[in-house]
Design brief:
This protein is about 30% helix and about 20% strand. The chain is built from eight helices and eleven strands. The two termini are about 30 Å apart.
């Protein structure tokens, strides 16, 4: 992992889009209706949120796999705390913005689903709603976004990762060849070389999670397409002159 270079950032190519990480999550409780509606007020053009399945296959919006030491996958919809929205409710709260739906599916967590049944539930909901065009579906589990594309190739998908595989060019070509439209690398992996290589194969670069203004400007100079931030209002101010 490489630290950000010292000194002033070079001039940015253009202002990246501002994506509110779990909503405006420094001003309100993350992944809540309040955080999503506040994100719009603070200037975000997209909201990033997380989805998990409950015991009765409801789509709960929550980052961690447990709530008060109880696994969400063992709870029913009725047992969720009142502040945990369902995906349908969250998407309604994000009207007027695009939404990055991160499907949680990690082998180390209690709700890991090797059959990717959560994918089918998310795709079905978006078909029923008819607004899949404003969604971007992402996951750290590559088979999950592959399953999304298999069920509905019209949905946009992006691959989340911390450190890219090498060689980078082959790694990015593989993602693009699967039909995904974006990569979501950690901010420390979002170098000029990474961004340029992604753009050469038609991938957007949405980097996470960026809260410091100097780092926002550094990443803008590197050419990223979007910054995912807990502080959308700070990003608006930082990028105002670009």
């Amino acid at each position: 992992m490489t630290a950000a270079p010292e000194g002033p950032a070079p001039a940015p190519r253009r202002a990246p889009h501002i994506v509110a990480h779990r909503g405006a999550s420094k001003a309100a409780k993350e992944n809540t209706i309040e955080a999503f509606t506040l994100a719009r007020t603070l200037g975000a053009v997209m909201v990033e949120l997380d989805v998990r399945r409950t015991a009765d296959n409801a789509l709960a919006v929550h980052h961690d796999p447990v709530i008060d030491a109880v696994a969400i996958v063992s709870m029913t919809r009725a047992e969720l705390p009142e502040w945990v929205p369902l995906l349908d409710e969250a998407l309604d709260a994000c009207h007027g913005m695009e939404v990055n739906i991160e499907i949680k599916n990690d082998e180390s967590e209690p709700d890991f689903d090797p059959e990717r049944t959560l994918v089918g539930a998310v795709v079905t909901l978006l078909r029923q709603r008819g607004d899949g065009h404003r969604m971007l579906i992402s996951s750290f589990d590559r088979d999950t976004i592959r399953a999304v594309r298999s069920l509905d190739p019209s949905l946009r998908t992006g691959y989340l990762f911390s450190v890219p595989e090498v060689p980078i060019e082959r790694f990015l070509e593989g993602i693009a060849n699967e039909g995904h439209v974006a990569i979501h690398p950690h901010r420390f992996a979002s170098s000029v070389e990474m961004v340029d290589a992604a753009h050469r194969v038609g991938l957007h670069v949405n980097t996470w999670t960026v809260d410091a203004p100097d780092e926002m400007l550094r990443l803008a100079a590197n050419g990223v397409d979007a910054v995912i931030t807990n502080l959308p209002d700070v990003a608006v101010t930082t990028f105002a002159s670009l």
